[in-house]
């Protein structure tokens, strides 16, 4: 009888003890967690930091005669095997461009378009809206500069047990009027790990 | 032989931690990365590996220079240092920018960045503040996980 009770207690403790690892919040300020083969937030932070520092110090955003350039975000191509929202990279860069005081971003065109800007203009004939509160024609500002880029991935066999995955982040800043490119940068993140790890 | 061991132990006790880890108080080189200058000592040279292990040879920061000499006139930092160890040292660093009140300016550029310094070689770190209001900085280091 006693041994039966002990067996039951042991079974209950195993079942109730939780078989899976404990869930914890990540310390995103000082994350010393292991690297993963796929792109994680630390990789985007690193790439964005390099891009921001290079772009703002290049002088490409310094407008002759003062003032700020209007910058639009174009297409950032995701050519990796992962499902990436490229805003993970661009939102950080746009935020710093705005905070640097060197540029203003536009939501009128580009990948960061705010549909409401255009939808509110479609209310010009509506009798439900005070027409004086609706944006007039010729009020949107076209961008001076555009940012576009690409994130791509290369998978290589390193040895029999390991693979090498290379992630390339490429951005370029071009003049919307002349088409001339004023700045560009590539940031590389390389990882080596087990063949069993899946990099997507 | 016994006296040699005593001499080595004495050198070890007095020598460890004497070398400057950072010439600038704003740069914090954490233990495990920092080193002493025992590595090139004539007494310690033949057993450098042991002394490096005992004395913790590694990263030493020689100079930190801050200026605004870039095309955009933004604050930038140049760190010059060297690796006293004979092995490549990999570490991470983070530069935080401070405003006139000494408060940290939160920027997306202040993240842990990887750095690698080859054995017995110098290294340089460059960091640019995206905010013009930065007037000072602080830098921290940690081991490459």
Explained architecture:
The complex is a heterodimer of chains A (200) and B (145). With 200 residues, chain A is an alpha/beta fold. Chain A has a domain of 104 residues: Rossmann fold, CATH 3.40.50. Helices cover 26% and strands 28% of the residues of chain A. Chain A is built from four helices and five strands. A five-stranded mixed beta sheet of chain A has the order 2-1-3-4-5, covered by helices on one side. In chain A, helix 2 packs parallel to helix 3. Chain A starts with a helix and ends in a 6-residue tail after the last strand. Chain B has 145 residues and is α+β, with helices and mostly antiparallel strands. Chain B has one domain: Immunoglobulin-like. Chain B contains two helices and eight strands; from the N terminus they run αβαβββββββ. In chain B, the strands form two sheets. In chain B, strands 1, 4, 5, 6 and 8 form a five-stranded mixed beta sheet that branches. Chain B has a three-stranded antiparallel beta sheet with strand order 2-3-7, with no helix packed on it.
Observed structural traits:
heterodimer; A: 200 residues; alpha/beta; Rossmann fold; five-stranded mixed beta sheet; 4 helices; extended; B: 145 residues; alpha+beta; Immunoglobulin-like; three-stranded antiparallel beta sheet; elongated
Largest interface: A-B, 29 and 21 residues
Radius of gyration of chain B, CA atoms, in whole angstroms: 18 Å
Q: Name the shape of chain A in a single word.
A: extended
Number of strands of chain B: 8
Flag low-confidence runs of chain A.
none
Percent of residues in helices of chain B comes to 10-25%
Question: SSE order of chain A in H/E notation?
Answer: HHEHEHEEE
Strand content of chain A: 25-35%
Oligomer: heterodimer
The top level CATH class name of the domain at 70-114 and 142-200 in chain A: Alpha Beta
Under the CATH scheme, which architecture of the domain at 70-114 and 142-200 in chain A would be assigned?
3-Layer(aba) Sandwich
Give the overall average pLDDT of chain A: 91
- Cα shape of chain B: elongated
Q: Runs of chain B with pLDDT <50, length 5+?
A: 13-20
Query: What's the rounded overall pLDDT mean of chain B?
Result: 80
Q: Which structural class do the helices and strands of chain B define?
A: alpha+beta
């Amino acid at each position: 009888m006693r041994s039966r009770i002990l067996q039951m207690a042991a079974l209950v403790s195993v079942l109730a003890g939780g078989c899976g690892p404990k869930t914890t919040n990540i310390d995103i300020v000082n994350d010393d967690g292991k690297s993963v083969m796929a792109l994680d937030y630390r990789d985007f932070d690193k790439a964005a930091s390099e891009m921001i520092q290079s772009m703002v110090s290049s002088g490409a955003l310094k407008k002759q005669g003062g003032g700020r350039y209007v910058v639009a975000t174009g297409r950032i191509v995701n050519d990796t095997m992962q499902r990436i929202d490229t805003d993970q990279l661009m939102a950080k860069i746009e935020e710093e461009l705005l905070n640097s005081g060197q540029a203003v971003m536009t939501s009128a065109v580009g990948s960061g378009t705010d549909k409401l800007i255009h939808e509110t203009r479609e209310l010009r004939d509506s009798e439900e809206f005070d027409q004086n509160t609706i944006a007039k024609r010729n009020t949107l500002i076209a961008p001076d500069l555009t940012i576009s880029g690409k994130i791509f991935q290369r998978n290589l066999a390193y040895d029999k047990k390991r693979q090498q995955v290379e992630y390339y982040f490429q951005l370029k800043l071009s003049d919307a009027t002349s088409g001339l490119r004023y700045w560009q940068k590539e940031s590389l993140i390389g990882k080596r790990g087990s063949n069993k790890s899946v990099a997507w | 032989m016994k006296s040699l061991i005593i001499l080595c132990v004495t050198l070890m006790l007095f020598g460890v931690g004497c070398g400057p880890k950072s010439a600038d108080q704003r740069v914090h080189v954490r233990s495990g990365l920092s080193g002493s200058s025992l590595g090139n000592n004539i007494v310690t040279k033949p057993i450098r590996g042991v002394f490096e292990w005992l004395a913790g040879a590694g990263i030493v920061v020689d100079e930190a220079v801050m200026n605004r000499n870039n095309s955009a006139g933004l604050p930038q930092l140049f760190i010059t240092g060297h690796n006293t160890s004979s092995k490549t040292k990999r570490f991470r660093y983070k530069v935080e920018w401070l405003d006139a009140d000494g408060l940290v300016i939160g920027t997306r550029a202040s993240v842990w960045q990887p750095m690698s310094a080859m054995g017995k070689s110098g290294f340089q770190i460059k960091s640019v503040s995206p905010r013009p209001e930065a007037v000072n900085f602080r830098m921290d280091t940690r081991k490459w996980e």
